[in-house]
Amino acid sequence: MSKSKPQLEGEVYYPSNEVVEQARLKDWDEMAEKARKDPQAFWAAEAEELEWFKKWDQVLDDSKKPFFKWFVGAKTNIVHNAIDRHLKTYRKNKLALVWESEDGKTERTFSYFLLNREVSRMANIIKAMGVNKGDRVTIYMGRIPEIAFAMLACAKIGAIHSVVFGGFSVDALQGRIDDSQSKLVITCDGAFQNGKIVELKRTVDEAVKRCPSVENVIVVKRVGHEVPMEVSRDHWYHDLCALPIANGKCATEVMDAEDPLYILYTSGSTGRPKAILHTHGGYMVGTYTTLKYVFDINDEDRYWCAADPGWVTGHSYIVYGPMLNGATSFMSEAGPSYPYPNRIWQQVERYGIRILYMAPTAIRGLMRFGEAWPNKHDLSSLRLLGSVGEPINPEAWKWYYRVIGKEKCPIMDTWWQTETGMFMITPTPTVPLKPGSGTRPFFGQEAEVLDEAGKPVADDTEGYLVLKNPWPAMLRTIYGDPDRYVNQYWSKYPGKYLTGDSAKRDRDGYFWIIGRADDVIKVSGHRLGTAEIESALVSHHAVAEAAAIGLPHEVKGQAIHTFVLLRSGFEASPELAEELRQHVATHMGPIARPEDVKFVDKLPKTRSGKIMRRVLKARAQGLPEGDVSTLDE
Ligand code: PRX
């Protein structure tokens, strides 16, 4: 890549001739223009590349906005395209998944042929547990191949999976199982994390006690330590595999394009986490297409999305997107710097990774260890890099570009959300890059930055980021709460999708994400709602009221800071602060542990009693408090 500055403003990185030569899509503008003129034709052409049991009668039905439908009347199953169709081609023997254990001693590889056998076997077992089309299954596992098998097995038989991130604890898990009314939970005896064991099965036991919908629990053996097994409810997966029903042949269920594929809980600005619903048809086309153009996957590539399968990034771009493209994916059980800061670079070298996709928080963490660690390894296999989850600061972008990509790998800074299901603002490999900007909307999409009244703001001015066009992988609703879906995303600016982010657009039409405009905190790329943290705090007997805010943090991006008003009879002390931090971690999971707890004797509130977190945030950073006309202290 050459760094020059003809037409575009600011610091721009242009693609090298080599990048352009290699890229499947050479002319971004031409494709963007075509898709702009007729987004439905663009998506229909992409959908034609996949197999359908029956084609659609209509690409998009927007007659009941915002309840959009895509590929109306079509029949398919995402697993048919992610696995079955590859078995008819040379890809049958191609590696689908390569996995390395945390201790680095075990490597497991699965061709598409083998993947099909594993998924079919698990699908047969799930069916035998009485799970039918449309039933919900909660998956709560570590980073092992079986988490992908479990998701695909559910999809294959038409069950709706609900993956809960393995870092969440009892209350979070229980709330999600209960809300989804799952019949079955699939878990492991435990997961390895930085040499320690995370007690997944014990957490499930606690959670399921209060979830009467759960009839069965399947337990995959991973760590090999003793866990209590409840007779008739809990079943070891390896025992089930020995049964005759657990054979490697299972028909893939014919699904309507609009049938639910999965729900995934994510935090919003208020109340309980929302169950975002995705479907078979549109989500399939969206993840397939975006991964194909943005990470430009070819058969000879080895691709690594270093996210956790428990988040949407793992759903779309570890499991479904890569398999829809017939790619070879790598999955690591270990974190990027365990046991040493070169773990990730050692794996890039060892597995010949060509495309690496990770979060800015991980990049910043690795950057802190210094260049000597990556420089110990041959990283010449890399050809494309990616970033996701939060804004990437230009300093981290440049380090990633120079030290890891050796100034030859374009960085795909992909902006998207659990709700969008697929990349929404992102470059493709030949697009000129500006460090810190995800560049422009993906084909067929238009974004805008609006002021409070819904008027587009001037260039380089901050405002609310909205999306103007429906897209195939869009969430269809909030499972069980369609009103909340309408209110949350479509009511502030009718007809436009409210992202919840604040952003700017520059004169070149490039978007710069500033951060969440609502009460959502992004800690190391994990999405947490202030309301959930506050209710965890208030559930402690010493706490009368609490407020949580996110403040900038060098590695995590944002860290959680809390303010607590004690009940009378309780005294502030460092011990109590520590107890409260632990209390939040126990209730929600270690990722939600606050950075600090400050005891206060009042909280800034509006006259109607709403906590003004904005004021707390400004005060904590020594910034002007802004408009405080509604403040009533
Ligand atoms: O604030 C944006 C931020 O992550 C939010 C979505 O979080 P979640 O649903 O957990 O999905 C994360 C993975 C897709 C967005 O509202 N975000 C995500 N990607 C970026 C980003 N912020 C800036 N740049 C990105 N590339």
Written account of the structure:
With 633 residues, this protein is α/β, with parallel strands linked by helices. 30% of the residues lie in helices and 23% in strands. The strands form 8 sheets. The protein has a 7-stranded mixed sheet, with helices on both faces. Strands 12-11-8-6-7-14-15 form a 7-stranded mixed sheet, sandwiched between helices. The chain has a 4-stranded antiparallel sheet with strand order 21-22-23-24. The longest helix has 17 residues, at 112-128. Adenosine-5'-monophosphate-propyl ester (PRX) is lined by residues 266, 312-313, 387-391, 413-418, 438, 499-501, 513, 516, 522, 527.
Regions with pLDDT < 50 over 5+ consecutive residues?
none
Which small compounds were modeled alongside the protein? adenosine-5'-monophosphate-propyl ester
User: Judging from the principal axes of the Cα atoms, what is the shape?
Assistant: globular
Strand order in space, largest sheet: 5-4-17-16-18-19-20
Query: Between the first and last Cα atoms, what is the distance in angstroms?
Result: 55 Å
Strand content: 15-25%
Q: What about the largest sheet?
A: 7 strands, mixed
Based on CA atoms alone, the radius of gyration comes out at 24 Å
Extended strand count: 29
